[in-house]
Amino acid sequence: MSEQRIIRPTPISGFPEWTPRIRSVELRWLDHIRRGFERYGFSSVETPSVEVLDVLLSKGETSQEIYTLQRLQADADDSSDARLGLHFDLTVPFARYVAQHFNDLVFPFKRYQIQRVWRGERPQEGRFREFTQCDIDVINVDRIPLHFDAELPRIVHEVLTGLDIPAWTLNINNRKVLQGFYEGLGITDPLAVIRAVDKLHKIGADAVREILIDQAGLSSDQAAACLELAEIRGSDTTVVDAVAKLGVSHPTLTAGLDELGEVLDELSDLPSGSVVADLSIARGLDYYTGTVYEATFNDDPGYGSICAGGRYENLAGQFIRRSLPGVGISIGLTRIFAKLVSEGRITGGRFCPTDVLVVLPSDERRSAALAVAAQLRERGFNTEVYHQAAKIGKQIQYAVKKDIPFVWFPPFDDGRPHEVKNLATGEQVEADPASWNG
Amino acid sequence: MSEQRIIRPTPISGFPEWTPRIRSVELRWLDHIRRGFERYGFSSVETPSVEVLDVLLSKGETSQEIYTLQRLQADADDSSDARLGLHFDLTVPFARYVAQHFNDLVFPFKRYQIQRVWRGERPQEGRFREFTQCDIDVINVDRIPLHFDAELPRIVHEVLTGLDIPAWTLNINNRKVLQGFYEGLGITDPLAVIRAVDKLHKIGADAVREILIDQAGLSSDQAAACLELAEIRGSDTTVVDAVAKLGVSHPTLTAGLDELGEVLDELSDLPSGSVVADLSIARGLDYYTGTVYEATFNDDPGYGSICAGGRYENLAGQFIRRSLPGVGISIGLTRIFAKLVSEGRITGGRFCPTDVLVVLPSDERRSAALAVAAQLRERGFNTEVYHQAAKIGKQIQYAVKKDIPFVWFPPFDDGRPHEVKNLATGEQVEADPASWNG
């Protein structure tokens, strides 16, 4: 053992890392989510981890803390990499991608993108510096049918339902409802109200009222009406009637209610309570122009959104002189997964993907053991051969420790049959490697 | 269309990005490689993209150019992230991982890791700043059976054989053969010779001879013997006899030849020429101590290694006071893939994963179309519904452009049958969504 200095490795705050059993569950989740996206025909896209800073900052000053890259051994006068930063979401890279590869794409372009993103935030509960997002977006030239505003929540519903996670609700709203309602009230800066209402679940109604009156300049009647609108919730088109009862009218409001009603209508076959219209959902981002989405855990809404998205009129406008409206939604995989791990709700899958451990009877019988393993692999079983001749008990112990369900015994003497032991039941039976079915 | 300034997006040199058809092939490759690794029971591991710099630099000054991270909006006096860098390979993070999670692992620990790595090199042919590596390693406490030195090339052989790539050879050597041979010749600094011989394929025999004599201080007889050894190649144990004929003897040489012979012997069932002992293979890295691997394309060996690896005695020694020998090999996915793309040998798969496009006969029949699509998805077919009522020709054209093989026609009138059109054959037949099989 060398006497060199030991660097005791420790976790890096905000950069999650899983032991193999936990990782095997994460991998199952990733496969499941991808399959859900592909089932609806979405194409896989990956973009580099970096973008030039101009692209990352193209939506104006961003509140996301960007990590920039610097070469450790860069020459003092070398500034060639000075303008690269790690992407902080997958939406900006996707907009850049669509503009850059416009002529190679078929529209409406439906893409999914499952990648890590980075934010130089102060790590705290549910906030990571490196985390995986699972995004789907549909983008089209000039016009994007409202049908997609309903398809995306349906996909998310199917995907999340297949994961073993606590109950959640996908809340839907429409920016036009908010904007039209506020304009119908005579409010001149609806976006300021949207930003204030977006904080409702964090800071409460009284604090929002204060902002609306003191900062956005609303009358107390206007503020009261805005908060009344935000209280409307429901999983069917009765929410449309509830808004109408507030007595505000404006063409944008009418358009928004029509859209919201149509989306709810197309989703009416989903289990009640899974997708709910919630007129308090605003999404702070400026670029949403219609439908907005936000999902939260029912038992911990304060944890914040686990999925979010919406419709935008022209996300790639800063990269290409084409009108490219779209609608997208993002599943915050790491946010969901890490919470369940830390709460002990995910305790892990199998340590390894091995289905069968083939016992090595002796060094002389290694090639026979390897041949059985090859045969089982050929037939679709993930198979290991124990790595050295050792007591059978020790070999079985290895399978137990690694969560391997079956131990295979090739003949220890010529002419004897193969046997296989099911470690869960303890049962051991004769078996033929050419026909055994697990 | 807004009049805002347009940021024309351009590729970032050294950061590959693929259009959807190319990406679909890459995804197939990634799935195939992963399946190959899992078939042999390797556990999935992912580590964060970053390590603290102390860890990245723990093997001493590295020739790999490291990218460090800096927060764009960092306060002048905030140095909390100053010590983070993107990993430049997956070996150092794996060594750190094993040390950090030692008590949660089962040994021998077999892990695969498929992730992006970053190097701040000057981009050139076959050299990227961001690329994907596919690594497998087996690591054990105190002792690692030689059997694994043969298992890894077998896995790589199976995996690469399943990809449609030009002919390649996986070359094997053993550091002990080189070291023992050099010591048997009376050379005092075998590592200097190993580093020189490692350049043989790049700079040629004469240049290596010059280095050996002028810089490593060898006599011309010693240099000649070293170069003679490097010429020995063969896919079976006859290479062992060929070395013996050179008349050098040393216990380390004998041990190395025994190991090399045993590994070749265990691999003797593989197709001739796929795994070859090549005594010129040295691998420059200091930490290899036995078997070394390096695969190259037969028609373009100058492109450099497409897989590489070897056996190491104590890779995690700087992180933990345990002896953890291992053996590993890495497939340079991006190096292989990007070369074939740039040479036009990979022209792309399907634009999207959709198997069936369901035609939308009219807005009134949307829910019937959605129901057929749901039924087909349930049965495992990736299915899209055309997004708006449009001329049938236009809907079929969309399927053609997106490489969707089947177009489904739900009844346009009540009581009529479903029909499905195979776009490859043009054949259109009646079909039942509950039993149709593609």
Mind sketching the topology for me?
The structure is a homodimer of 438-residue chains.
Chain A (H helix, E strand, L loop, with lengths): L19 H20 L3 E2 L5 E3 H4 L10 E5 L12 E3 L4 H10 L8 E10 L11 E10 L7 H15 L6 E7 H10 L5 H8 L2 H4 L1 H11 L4 H11 L2 E2 L3 H7 L6 H16 L8 E4 L9 E10 L9 E6 L13 E6 L1 H10 L13 E3 L7 H13 L4 E3 L6 H10 L4 E4 L9 E4 L5 E3 L8
Parallel strand pairs in A: 1-5, 7-9, 13-14, 13-15
Antiparallel strand pairs in A: 2-4, 5-6, 6-12, 7-10, 8-9, 10-11, 11-12, 15-16, 16-17
Helix pairs in contact in A: 1-4, 5-6, 5-11, 8-9
Might you state the CATH topology name of the largest domain in chain A?
BirA Bifunctional Protein, domain 2
**Which two chains form the greatest contact, residue counts included?**
A-B, 97 and 97 residues
Total separate domains of chain A = 2
Number of discrete helical segments of chain A? 14
> What is the chains' assembly state?
homodimer
Q: What is the arithmetic mean of pLDDT of chain A?
A: 93
Protein name (chains A, B): Histidine--tRNA ligase
GO molecular function (chains A, B): ATP binding; histidine-tRNA ligase activity
Keywords (chains A, B): Aminoacyl-tRNA synthetase, ATP-binding, Cytoplasm, Ligase, Nucleotide-binding, Protein biosynthesis
Pfam families (chains A, B): HGTP_anticodon, tRNA-synt_His
Describe this structure in words.
Chains A, B: Homodimer. Chains A, B: It catalyses: tRNA(His) + L-histidine + ATP = L-histidyl-tRNA(His) + AMP + diphosphate + H(+). Chains A, B: It is found in: Cytoplasm. 2 copies of one chain form a homodimer. By secondary structure, the first copy, chain A, is an alpha+beta fold. Chain A folds into 2 domains: 20-342, Bira Bifunctional Protein, Domain 2 (BirA Bifunctional Protein, domain 2, 2-Layer Sandwich), CATH 3.30.930.10; 356-430, 3-Layer(aba) Sandwich (Rossmann fold). Helices cover 34% and strands 19% of the residues of chain A. Chain A has 14 helices and 17 strands. In chain A, the strands form 3 sheets. In chain A, strands 1-5-6-12-11-10-7-9-8 form a 9-stranded mixed β-sheet. In chain A, strand 13 (356-358), helix 13 and strand 14 (383-385) form a beta-alpha-beta unit. In chain A, helix 5 runs antiparallel to helix 11 (251-266). The radius of gyration of chain A is 28 Å and the shape is elongated. The two termini of chain A are 44 Å apart. The model of chain A has no long low-confidence stretch (mean pLDDT 93). Chains A and B meet through helix 1, strand 1, strand 2, helix 2 and strand 3 of A and helix 1, strand 1, strand 2, helix 2 and strand 3 of B.
